[in-house]
Write a structure and sequence with these properties.
By secondary structure, the protein is an alpha+beta fold. The chain has a single domain (about 5-130), classed as START domain (Alpha-D-Glucose-1,6-Bisphosphate, Chain A, domain 4, 2-Layer Sandwich). The chain is built from three helices and eight strands; from the N terminus they run βααβββββββα. It has helices at about 15-20, 30, 105-130, and strands at about 5-10, 35-40, 45-50, 55-60, 70-75, 75-80, 85-90, 90-100. The strands form two sheets. It has a five-stranded antiparallel beta sheet, with no helix packed on it. Strands 1-8-7 form a three-stranded antiparallel beta sheet. A hairpin with a 2-residue loop joins β3 (about 45-50) and β4 (about 55-60). The mean pLDDT is about 95.
Length: about 140
């Protein structure tokens, strides 16, 4: 088993609103700019320019459970990213679990976690501004 760490952020927005925004891949460069620089739909696929090169994204089907898992196919390999929106009172928690796969040093993993924290903070700020702290 790989080392895993879940990063979460509390968002003062109803979970359905947060999910709708996050589930739209076109929004990734707005809130996940620490990794995704641009993304476009080509046929049935989403192709992104990332900090690690061109990547193909595949997303969990739309659902009512807040599951936002996505696979990222990079030149270095394929990575599964478990992600959730979890109701919390009138707001929600957004969680992403990172796995330290072979070949990723402790320092790289720490850096990756910092990028996830920063990106989730940006996501929170965008959602709360869009919805005027609607929770």
């Amino acid at each position: 088993m790989y080392r895993a760490h879940t990063v979460s952020v509390a968002v003062a927005v109803p979970p359905q609103r947060a999910y709708a925004y996050i589930a739209d891949p076109a929004n990734l460069p707005k809130w996940a700019s620490g990794f995704v620089k641009s993304i476009e739909k080509r046929g049935d696929e989403w192709i992104a320019v990332t900090t690690l090169g061109q990547a193909r994204f595949r997303f969990a089907p739309a659902n009512e459970l807040g599951v936002l898992d996505h696979d990222v196919d990079l030149p270095a390999g394929k990575f599964h990213n478990p992600m959730r929106v979890v109701p919390n009172g009138k707001g929600c928690e957004v969680l992403l679990t990172a796995l330290q796969v072979p070949g990723i040093s402790d320092a790289q993993f720490s850096g990756d976690l910092e990028i996830v924290r920063r990106d989730l903070g940006t996501l929170r700020d965008i959602l709360e501004q869009m919805h005027g702290n609607a929770a």
